[in-house]
Write a structure and sequence with these properties.
Blueprint: H1 5-13, H2 16-19, H3 28-32, E1 41-43, E2 49-51, H4 52-75, E3 86-90, H5 96-109, E4 120-124, H6 125-133, H7 148-154, E5 195-201, E6 205-212, E7 218-224, H8 230-245, H9 250-257, H10 259-272, E8 279-282, H11 285-292, E9 307-310, E10 313-316, H12 318-340, E11 346-352, H13 359-369, E12 374-376, H14 383-394
Helix pairs in contact: 1-10, 4-5, 6-14, 8-12, 9-11, 12-13
């Protein structure tokens, strides 16, 4: 019915009895992509389940239909799925059995038929992201004293926000901290022999080292095992903090009775957690009512550090927000040092993926590893993977054909 932000909004606004009739899937990809899921099912919050094949097929079907409608609205005329090559981005460590199941899902979703399977391609997320970064001018990277929005304008990249997870126009302007001229490096490194360590900061963190060959082609030199679920760790700590604030069973009672409102609170937090400043989250009336059955709501904040009540909102301090990230940052730093200590002649650390939006993460990596390594992050780092995938779909030769897992990139027949 709905996807991304619209799905979260629709489900959150449903009455409890109506919500029970629906399936709401969240972060299901992280549950299954690291395992052989040919016979797995995916559970939802209300203990209903659906086969993984069905879930993937419906996701791909929705995206296919939405893409075709969008293209028709922009270009006019009639298009069908057969008119396109479909490029699917995958993490480095995906199993062969999982890949085959995704192809089966794509067939069920109508992207291809059994006779046109060759029109589905896989590309690795890190290769796609680096391919896009290598095309950018210096003002295509996050820089000091420029908001992301203003940099989009100066880079000629002003375009609609295509994220499926955010409402239109919802991106806040964010301030960053590097001089523009300092980022003009990717276009000057074709001959310096230094390698790029690409960190895909998504639900999982992947670490991949690439050579850039003559002509701009990529060659994978090192693939590190995936790290833990970064975003979920932060959200888990935030929810535990809410339980600490609303003690004496208040939060537990609220979470049990108003599950859809809890999802809304967590989504509001997700929208703010990339900031490096005090943040405010609106407190729903039902949570206030539950709390005030025990005592005045302001008094719940007397015994906790890093949070305060602010006229109907929960204010969380910058220091407490940073605390939520400590464990993640420590793990990422440890993995980076392990890779860098292997003497792989790395010169550049490139941060991409949704978690790279986070100012706290970027500043921490910069503080830990510059000036020995140059830390770079493109504007809209999550979109870098998408746009790089299109580039690789148009020019597969940008990836060396004889790399470790050549079957990932080949069209399947």
């Amino acid at each position: 019915m709905k996807f991304g932000y619209e799905a979260k909004t629709a489900f959150t606004n449903m009455r409890e009895e109506e919500a029970e009739k629906h399936y709401f899937f969240e972060q299901f990809k992280t549950t299954v992509l690291s395992r052989d899921f040919s016979k797995l099912t995916v559970k939802v919050a209300n203990d209903k389940s659906m086969t993984t094949l069905k879930v993937f097929a419906e996701v791909l079907r929705f995206l296919k239909d939405d893409a075709l409608k969008t293209i028709k609205d922009l270009e006019g005329g009639e298009f069908t799925a057969d008119d396109f090559t479909w490029v699917l981005t995958v993490p480095e460590l995906l199993k062969d059995s999982t890949k085959e199941l995704i192809i089966k899902s794509a067939t069920q979703a109508g992207l291809v038929t059994d006779d046109t399977r060759s029109k589905v391609m896989f590309v690795l997320e890190s290769e796609a992201a680096l391919t896009w970064c290598l095309k950018l001018q210096s003002d295509g990277f996050i820089t000091q004293n420029h908001s992301r929005d203003s940099q989009d304008q100066s880079a000629g990249a002003a375009e609609p926000d295509t994220s499926c997870n955010d409402p239109a126009g919802s991106q806040e302007a964010v301030q960053f901290t590097v001089e523009p001229e300092e980022t003009k490096v990717l276009l000057e490194t074709q001959s310096d022999g230094k390698r790029y360590l690409v960190v895909d900061c998504g639900d999982y963190s992947h670490f991949t080292v690439h050579d850039v060959l003559k002509g701009g082609a990529l060659k994978t030199k090192h693939e590190a095992p995936k790290n833990d679920l970064e975003g979920q760790t932060v959200e888990r700590k935030f929810k535990q903090f809410l339980r600490e604030i609303f003690c004496d069973g208040v939060w537990d009672e609220y979470e049990q009775n108003f599950a859809s409102e809890v999802k809304k609170i967590m989504y509001d937090f997700t929208r703010l957690k990339h900031l490096d400043e005090d943040v405010q989250i609106s407190c729903p009336d039902n949570l206030k009512d539950e709390a005030q059955k025990k005592k005045q709501i302001e008094t719940f904040f007397d015994s906790v550090e890093g949070a305060s009540w602010d006229d109907g909102s929960i204010r969380i301090s910058r220091e407490k927000l940073r605390f939520f990230y400590d464990e993640n940052l420590q793990r990422i730093t440890e993995r980076l040092r392990e890779i860098l200590d292997n003497n792989l002649n790395i010169g550049y650390i490139v941060l991409v993926g949704g978690f790279a939006e986070n100012q706290i993460l970027r500043q921490h990596i910069t503080d830990q590893f510059e000036p020995q390594y140059k830390v770079l992050c493109p504007l809209r780092p999550q979109e870098a993977i998408l746009k790089g995938a299109v580039e690789l779909g148009r020019n597969p030769k940008l990836v060396e054909s004889q790399r470790k897992h050549p079957a990932w990139f080949k069209c399947l027949s």
